[in-house]
Design brief:
- The structure is a single chain.
- This protein is of the alpha/beta class.
- It has two domains: 6-86 and 195-267, 3-Layer(aba) Sandwich (Rossmann fold), CATH 3.40.50; 91-192, Hypothetical Protein, Haloacid Dehalogenase-like Hydrolase, Chain: A, domain 2.
- It is built from twelve helices and 14 strands.
- It has helices at residues 11-15, 24-35, 48-57, 60-63, 91-104, 124-133, 143-146, 160-173, 197-208, 225-230, 242-247, 259-267; strands at residues 6-9, 39-43, 66-69, 74-77, 82-86, 107-111, 116-118, 137-138, 154-157, 178-184, 187-192, 215-219, 233-236, 250-251.
- A hairpin with a 4-residue loop joins β6 (107-111) and β7 (116-118).
- The chain starts with 5 loop residues before the first strand and ends with a helix.
Length: 270
């Protein structure tokens, strides 16, 4: 057994294959790891409801795995369903982001327990997000007035070139108020300040009395960069964005080739 005591996985492009399914070898390796006493967590931009089916396949409800939803804005013990950490955007911030979406002519959505709420007409990227999370889209008459309670995040949707330009502008504009970053070329995240996968993993490690040196993180997307850099062993999938590979300590096989199972077998020797 190595000195690593926790494994953290992104979902899309990492724990699941190109069909958004968990391959049997990967599922079995994650379960074996937990049986051996190693903690496992999922860190994803998805809402809790979108992570739940994967957490259940990995038997987090049996072994006490953790889910970091909304890039870490919500951390839950999946066995007890206890929320151990939460950060939110207040409604006034959501209204600012809504105006930005209208100015840049891109989509904007946020999340309720049972649906995704959109402030702009449906676009193909919203449909992707709704499909991934198995949640319906809802279009209120006035998004800015509809959101009256804090939300975990907003998501801008649109053409990659437009979002790339928008990212740097909003990151400067909201430097003291929010985190602005792309999770996919067509998704631009707006989360509460100091919410990214690394920052929130640090909070979880403190709760579990673990160090970052004992942590292995696997991912493929832009929003995985922070946790890959933070971990004792940062792993990029072979299918990862090039910027992700550049910061990784190790590049494993692709998500269609059980890259996560390979990491477990190689570095945890299970």
């Amino acid at each position: 057994m190595t000195g690593y005591k926790m494994l953290v996985l992104d979902i899309d492009g990492t724990a699941t294959d190109s069909k958004k399914e968990v391959l049997p070898r990967t599922r079995d390796a994650v379960i074996r790891l937990q049986k051996a006493g190693i903690s496992v967590a999922i860190a994803s931009g998805r809402p809790s409801q979108g992570i739940a089916p994967i957490a259940d396949q990995f038997q987090f409800d049996k072994y006490g795995g953790y889910i970091l939803a909304f890039n870490g804005a919500r951390i839950m013990n999946w066995k007890t369903r206890e929320c151990v950490y939460a950060r939110s955007l207040n409604p006034s911030m959501v209204r600012k982001l809504y105006r930005d979406a209208l100015d840049f002519q891109v989509g904007i959505i946020t999340y309720e327990d049972t649906r995704i709420v959109s402030g702009t007409p449906e676009d193909p990227y919203m449909k992707i997000e709704a499909g991934i999370n198995h949640l319906p889209l809802y279009f209120p008459e006035d998004f800015g007035q509809y959101v009256t309670s804090p939300v975990p995040k907003c998501l801008f949707t649109g053409e990659p070139e437009r979002l790339e330009k928008m990212e740097s502008i909003l990151a400067d504009k909201y430097f003291h108020e929010a985190q602005i970053f792309r999770s996919e070329p067509y998704f631009l995240e707006a989360t509460p300040k100091n919410v990214d996968k690394a920052y929130c993993l640090e909070r979880l490690l403190n709760l579990l009395s673990l160090s970052r040196e004992e942590l292995v993180c696997c991912g493929d997307g832009y929003n995985d960069i922070s946790m890959i850099q933070f971990a004792g062993l940062g792993v990029a999938m072979a299918n990862a964005q090039e910027k992700v590979k550049q910061v990784a300590d190790y590049i494993t096989y692709s998500n269609d080739e059980d890259g996560v199972a390979h990491v477990i077998e190689k570095f945890f020797q299970i």
